[in-house]
Amino acid sequence: MGVRSGDDPGGEPNRDDERVLGAIAAQLRGAEPAAAPGRLCAVAVELLPVDGASVSLRGDGMPLRLAASGDVAARLAELQATLGDGPCHHVLRTGAPVLARDLTDAACAERWPVFAQQALGSGVRAVYALPLGSTAVCVGTLDLYSASSGSLTAHELHVALLVAGVMTVALTDLPNDARDAGEGWLSGLAAGHDRVHQAVGMIMAQLGVGAGEALARLRGDAFAHDLTVLEAALDVVARGRRLDTP
Q1: How far is CA 223 from CA 118, 210, 231, 238, 243, in A?
Q2: Domain ANTAR: where (predicted)?
Q3: Which residue among 54, 104, 232, 235 is least packed, with the fewest CB closer than 10 Å?
């Protein structure tokens, strides 16, 4: 877990930025494109008072988890995709950061009742979700998870935004032919997304519902069986399983 630093009115922001960017550069040195998102999640945990980080890309209908610093962060990223709700989704809709300082607050419980409960059960008290890109073009999110409640200081938020900025550059600078070049994480991500679409199509045909309703049924089935959306989709595709109608 990173060490929380206080605001330092007498400090030198430019020098501190150099220190932060130096730490990021050290993590990325020699990294292949496939390793960059995971390394940036790791450096976020080193530089900030958080216990986990994940990065998700905007997908068609649901965010796609790209990397995470550990099991809890990975699970919470997948949970948001499964639920179709959570801080990540608000960021993708608006392009604005979400800084949920205490998930036990009534406002968080009302806003994300299931996600907040599940996150608290995983030992997470605060979530800070930042856009990758801009309010005009948000390509994904960097989600930071803390076991302790509390707000990020202005300095810490600045550092988090620096990491998010480098993450955005790392993702947008990937070669267009990365999948053909054998980057397994890209091909695996696309294949997983295709399976979700295939399952949604099958559910639409089986139940005579639209795409939105079919995705909602798939998400509900995944949550009910403690699966990710991808796991539930693979089950539907492999076995042709029909989801029960209400």
Answers
A1: 11, 20, 11, 19, 13
A2: 182-237
A3: 104
Eight-state DSSP code of residue 126: E
Taking only the tens place, the pLDDT of each residue in 119-157 is 999 999 999 999 998 767 888 899 999 999 999 999 999
Per the DSSP assignment, residues forming a β-bridge with 237 are: none
Q: Tokens standing for 129?
A: 């979700």
Question: Are the C-beta atoms of 64 and 192 separated by less than 8 Å?
Answer: yes
Q: Rg of the chain's alpha carbons, rounded to an integer?
A: 19
User: Would the CA dihedral through 62, 231, 32, 87 be positive or negative?
Assistant: positive
Place of tokens 């295939």: 198
Measure CA of the first residue to CA of the last residue in the chain; give whole Å: 45
Specify whether the CB–CB gap between 143 and 128 falls below 8 A.
yes
